[in-house]
Write a structure and sequence with these properties.
The protein is α/β, with parallel strands linked by helices. The protein has 2 domains: about 120 residues, 3-Layer(aba) Sandwich (Rossmann fold), CATH 3.40.50.720; about 180 residues, Rossmann fold. The protein is about 35% helix and about 15% strand. It is built from 12 helices and 12 strands. Strands 8-7-6-9-10-11-12 form a 7-stranded parallel β-sheet, with helices on both faces. A 5-stranded parallel β-sheet has the order 2-1-3-4-5. Strand 3, helix 3 and strand 4 form a beta-alpha-beta unit. Helix 5 packs across helix 7. The protein starts with a strand and ends in a 10-residue tail after the last helix.
Length: about 325
C-alpha cells in the first residue's frame, strides 16, 4: 500500500495508482503532518509520497515498519530525518532539477517587485494617493550595473544569475563549491560570505536549510549589508533569523526584503513582517506552475516506484 500525504490530480500520479493500492490525504491540510486516517494506515504502508509539511522522523518511521521508500515532492528534505531513514535502509527520493526555472522566475519576480516598490506603489494608486507627477516620489533601485550576491550557487542559484545577467547585473556568489564554468559564462566571482554581504546591492538565498545554514542571515549579517540592500529568500525560511529581519527592516539597516519562504508556513497574518511596507511575502509559490508541479509529482512517483522495486532512485537524498 502507498500513502500520499496530499491529494494530487489523478493524471499526475497514475503511474502508482494503476499498480498499487493508494490512500491519499486532502489536497490542503488543516495542520502540518499526516491526517489521523493516514497515520492509522502507516503500519501497512510500503511507500510514502510526501510533501515538505510532513515531518518524517523516528515517530513516523517507527509506526511504519514495512516502509521501503520515502519519496518527497520537493528539492529540500529538511523535514526528513535522513539518518533515521538510512539506519532503516529506506532510500529518500526528492525532485531537483524540474523546478529550477520556476523558482528562478519567482526569485526575479521578487527582485523586480521589491526594487521598484511594486506592491507599495500599486496600493497607493488603488487607495487614492496618486497625485500629480512628483520627481522624488516612489523612487526605487536600478538593476543594471548593480551587484547581485547569490548565496548557494547550485542549479537555482545559477538560473537566477543568468536571468539577472540579462538585466545587466554584476554577479558575485558564495558557495561550498566553486563553479568555474558559471564564472566564465556569467563573469561571476566567488567571494567570502562577509565580502558578499558588504558588496551586494541584492542578496539572494539559494542554500538548503541545514544545521550550518540555519539563521545564516542574522543580526550580524544585516549589520554587514548596505543600508540600500535588498534581501531575497526563495530557499527556506529558517535560513533567515526573522526577528533580526524585522529589526533590520524597521531600523532601515536594509532597504527591503522579498520572501517566498517563511517560518512557520503559513506565516500568521499578525506577524510583524506583514506590517512592514518594505517587505513582500509570497505563500511559497516558487514551483507553482502547472507544468512544474506535474513534473515534480511524476518524478516523485518514479522515485517511489524504483524504491519499491529495490532499484536506484533517479534522485536520492540519503
Amino acid at each position: 500500500m502507498i500513502i500520499l500525504s496530499h491529494e494530487l490530480p489523478a493524471d499526475w500520479i497514475s503511474s502508482i495508482t494503476d499498480k498499487y493500492e493508494t490512500i491519499m490525504g486532502p489536497s490542503t491540510l488543516e495542520s502540518a503532518g499526516l491526517t489521523p486516517e493516514l497515520q492509522a494506515a502507516l503500519p501497512n504502508a510500503n511507500g510514502l509520497l510526501t510533501m515538505l509539511t510532513v515531518r518524517v522522523d523516528e515517530t513516523l518511521l517507527s509506526a511504519a515498519p514495512n516502509l521501503k521508500i520515502v519519496s518527497q515532492m520537493a528539492v529540500g528534505v529538511d523535514n526528513i530525518d535522513l539518518a533515521a531513514c538510512s539506519a532503516r535502509g529506506i532510500p529518500v527520493g526528492h525532485t531537483p532539477g524540474v523546478l529550477t526555472d520556476a523558482t528562478a522566475d519567482v526569485t526575479l519576480t521578487l527582485l523586480l517587485a521589491t526594487s521598484r516598490r511594486v506592491i507599495e506603489t500599486a496600493a497607493d494608486a488603488r487607495e487614492g494617493r496618486w497625485g500629480t507627477w512628483n520627481p522624488t516620489q516612489w523612487l526605487g533601485s536600478d538593476l543594471a550595473g548593480q551587484t547581485l550576491g547569490i548565496v548557494g550557487m547550485g542549479a537555482i542559484g545559477q538560473a537566477t544569475a543568468r536571468r539577472a545577467k540579462a538585466f545587466g547585473m554584476n554577479i558575485v556568489y558564495h558557495s561550498r563549491s566553486s563553479y568555474p564554468e558559471a564564472e566564465k559564462e556569467l563573469s561571476a566571482e566567488k567571494v567570502p560570505f562577509r565580502q558578499l554581504l558588504a558588496q551586494s546591492d541584492f542578496v539572494s538565498l539559494h542554500t538548503p536549510l541545514t544545521a550550518e545554514t540555519k539563521h545564516l542571515i542574522d543580526a550580524d549579517a544585516f549589520s554587514a549589508m548596505k543600508p540600500s540592500a535588498i534581501l531575497i529568500n526563495t530557499a527556506r525560511g529558517g535560513v533567515v533569523d526573522q526577528d533580526a529581519l524585522v529589526n533590520a527592516l524597521r531600523n532601515r539597516e536594509i532597504r527591503a526584503a522579498g520572501l517566498d519562504v517563511t517560518t512557520p508556513e503559513p506565516l500568521p497574518t499578525y506577524h510583524p513582517l506583514f506590517q512592514m511596507p518594505n517587505c513582500l511575502i509570497l505563500p511559497h509559490i516558487g514551483s507553482a506552475t502547472e507544468r512544474t508541479r506535474r513534473k515534480m509529482a511524476q518524478l516523485g512517483c518514479e522515485n517511489l516506484l524504483l524504491g519499491l522495486e529495490g532499484k536506484p532512485l533517479k534522485h536520492q537524498a540519503n
